[in-house]
Design a protein that fits this description.
294 residues; Rossmann fold; six-stranded mixed beta sheet; four-stranded antiparallel beta sheet; 11 helices; globular
Length: 294
């Protein structure tokens, strides 16, 4: 594992008291989390812990029942496309590429929040529109080179191997020029070689000055990668700290082994929350595909 030392600075993400209820069921309860510039933070927890629901609250797919989310000091609007425009990008558990579009076209879609030419410029094909189009293609190709897919720019996204589809989704997220990138299980389904490549890619993203918040079930990946790790258990933050602190916490070990701890909810309550999360539909501006929390 090789990476340069990055000096952490301003707080990029500041989530305070985030609570998400579905009817009378609480999926996320009073969670505080910060991410600083130049930092990689991990978010882990057993299945059904509320990790993806928390991500959805950060990115405008869900409006938190309580609490607030700030990006660089500004409260985020409750719409995902506005959150992207503000400077937060994400990937999903289930890959959400445009399968019948080319690799390059998928990345160009991610550029839409950073292009300034409007409807009439596009219709009239003005010189300004053509300049913006060329700039977007150049930037998209730079990102494909960065993730190692420039040689497949004209391939259909659906024809890429699974690991390369994951890379493409990251490139598309980076196309919006984010200050914070949220990765939802980026190594799910990968072999050890692909996982190591993803680890190096995330370090390279951080080295470009982009803060990263990542959900992952691969504990070796998380503890190799992250400066800090927060643990969610049944929607509440159980502990937060460096890798040694988290790995040595008996409550974390118990949670992953399925052993109850003090004040832990019962099995019926857990099942109700998981069912409510599964049935909740994201807001209408969400990307296509099923959202679930694992």
């Amino acid at each position: 594992m090789t990476t340069q030392t990055i000096t952490r600075g301003e707080t990029v993400l500041d989530a305070r008291g985030v609570t998400m209820r579905f009817g009378g069921l609480t999926a996320v309860h009073n969670v505080d989390l910060t991410v600083d510039s130049g930092e990689i933070v991990g978010l882990i927890g057993p299945n059904g812990a509320g990790k993806t629901t928390f991500f959805n609250c950060l990115t405008g797919l869900y409006v938190p029942t309580e609490g607030e989310v700030r990006f660089k000091g500004q409260v985020l609007p409750p719409k995902s496309f506005k959150v992207t425009a503000a400077g937060i990008a994400r990937t999903f558990q289930n890959i959400r590429l445009f399968a019948n579009m080319s690799v390059l076209e998928n990345v160009l879609v991610g550029r839409h929040t950073r292009t300034k030419e409007g409807f009439w410029a596009a219709i009239l094909r003005s010189p300004g529109f053509h300049r913006a189009e060329r700039a977007s293609r150049e930037r998209a190709m730079e990102l494909l080179e960065f993730v190692g897919l420039a040689h497949k720019a004209e391939h259909l996204a659906r024809n890429l191997p699974y690991g390369e589809q994951r890379k493409l989704e990251i490139a598309r997220a980076l196309a919006s020029e984010p200050g914070l990138l949220l990765l939802d299980e980026p190594t799910a389904g990968m072999n050890p070689q692909e996982t190591r490549a993803t680890e190096e890619l995330v370090f390279a993203i951080r080295d470009k000055g982009i803060a990263v918040l990542v959900i992952e079930h691969d504990m070796r990946f998380i503890f190799n990668l992250c400066d800090r790790v927060a643990v969610l258990v049944q929607g509440e933050k159980l502990v937060e700290g460096d890798s040694a602190t988290v790995q040595g916490d008996e409550r974390v070990v118990a949670a992953y082994l399925g052993e109850p701890f003090e004040d832990a909810p019962g099995a019926e309550e857990i099942a109700e929350v998981e069912a409510a999360e599964a049935q909740a539909a994201p807001t209408t501006d969400a990307a296509p595909g099923k959202e679930s929390d694992r």
